[in-house]
Write a structure and sequence with these properties.
This protein is of the alpha+beta class. It has 4 helices and 5 strands; from the N terminus they run αααβαββββ. The chain is globular and about 45 Å long.
Length: 162
């Protein structure tokens, strides 16, 4: 985000923040960093970390084209852990790292990431040639309530530059 990008721009992308029971206090940078570190641990090493970070009423928003899962089927920590495990099985050496962030806006954290792996020929993507390396770049936006992720927007794309 640039200095002239304010909450109104984020709201135009994400929609208005929830009111009432799902509303939460502003997120500290330290809390955002801790949640992001555990999010990466979930994706990189231990899918069961989802039980520590996914909150009640969880929703994940994914692009539908090329998706490896139905986002509407992921509603809790167990579903998230299943998806992460299933996704990891499609690759060798899957690893994500933070490139920028986390940035904090109220109850939301935003990070840009880079992921690298080797295809195993299991995604049905046209670029999936078993043994071929792949690199993605992307952005995850995580809304936090009660110290847990209650909503996630994740967007990634293959790249030859990272």
């Amino acid at each position: 985000m640039t200095p002239d990008t304010g909450p109104e721009v984020l709201e135009s992308v994400l929609g208005p923040h929830s009111e009432g029971a799902n509303a939460s206090a502003p997120l500290s940078r330290a809390a955002a960093a801790d949640i992001w570190d555990r999010w990466l641990r979930m994706w990189n090493v231990e899918p069961q970390t989802a039980a520590e970070i996914i909150g009640p009423g969880y929703r994940v928003h994914l692009p539908s084209v090329g998706a490896t899962v139905d986002a509407d089927a992921i509603r809790d920590a167990e579903g998230m852990a299943r998806w992460v495990s299933s996704f990891r099985e499609k690759f060798d050496g899957l690893h994500y790292r933070t490139e920028r962030g986390p940035f904090v806006d109220g109850d939301t954290l935003i990070c840009r990431w880079v992921g690298r792996a080797v295809f195993r020929g299991r995604t049905n993507w046209s670029s999936d040639v078993s043994g071929a390396p792949v690199t993605w770049v992307g952005v995850d936006i995580l809304r936090i309530a009660g110290g847990r992720i209650v909503e996630a927007w994740t967007q990634g794309a293959e790249t030859t530059k990272a």
